[in-house]
Specification:
By secondary structure, the chain is of the alpha+beta class. Helices cover 24% and strands 25% of the residues. The C terminus is likely disordered.
Amino acid sequence: MVEHLREVLRRSALDNHVPGAQLVIWRDGEVREFEFGEERHGTGCAVKRDSKVPIGSITKTFTATLLMVLVSDGDVDLDEPVVEYLPELRQALGGHADVLTARHLLSHTGGLPSEVVAPPNGRVELAASVQDVVQPPGAGFSYSNTGYALIGRLIEVATGMTWAEAVRTILLKPLGIDLGFITGEESPATASGHTVNHALRLVRPVEQELAPVEAPAGGLAASAADLVELAKMHLDPRHGGIDPGLVTPEHLAEMCRPVPGAEPFGLADGWGLGLAIFRGHGTGWLGHDGTADGTSCHLRLNPGSGTVVALTANSSTGAALWRDLLPELRAVGIDLTEDEATIDAEPSASIPRECTGTYVNGDTAFSVVVEGDELHLVVDDEPAARLAVHDGFVFSVTDLANGATGRPGRFLRDPRSGRIDRIQIGGRVAGRRHRERDVA
């Protein structure tokens, strides 16, 4: 019934210039696996079932599951201040030190900047990355790689191992899977990522660039089959779920439960502990997406129906391949819904100038500027997108380079003053940078 997906995968991969891809569907104990193309463009080395693709942020689900093993063992308390395990962060966190917990970090409600600060001397210190909080812990959702770097360090303190050693020994070995690591050690089975120049129809391999401290947020390489093995921990045993005895049923349920205040507008409908929540039409899908350098990977699981879908694509255009697959999957009874917020209303005819200004998240600056009769987004001085503002100060995004539609975002108001003081885009919150006369 699903065999035609092999041709759909091949055709869409060719249309979107994806050199290689894996698609695995697990449904109520039955599995279908499809592979297409090359691990590295132009080499003729075919993508195999066990080819490892850099999975980017899906790494966070592995890191979160590892931490929950330690929680189940009583080694870590989700609601204990993180500084109890990492006292070196107390001064940097200031007044937030006794509030920030592992639960905040796992659910992206810690208010930390998105990216880890890499100083000029090359030494990365987590204390430098937590000083400029975006918003107080627990105040709302803001996607943060820094938060998962802290989780990785917490794991190291609790286990006495490096993060990589702990992942391999405590989590992967009991699951019976062997992943690649893109920092610290080479993995010969890791496929290359690729960039695509649509105008010139050029596909070029790219190397992975990730600081070791960020590995807990995005440092793993896996096959689609590997992702399914992790996902099966969350399935009902009646539908082929597995219980390796690592995490208690209660703590597994916590991972899947929406955290209050975690509103990842444009990314998903809610967030648990290491898993995004996609309610769609009440169908109850969980999962995570991941982009590494030149890759795009997607994992979805439905605990009630015993269904898992995993896609790995070794190209930056893999997200388009995923979108092409969604209607085909629905046609065979896999009721995945679009995982992005949609905006049906027409945009405002006038430009809301109260939205203009510069908003910052760590070292990243988002500037909203007026260009002619349009509102544009400039990221770190590079023109990025055209914004169209709709009712409720949500906005749609159109890429200036290729005209592609991106994930929508929104402007947020200060609940006390009523002034727009933040922007949420790509799940990340950035606060307004005030000019001196505004502060005075």
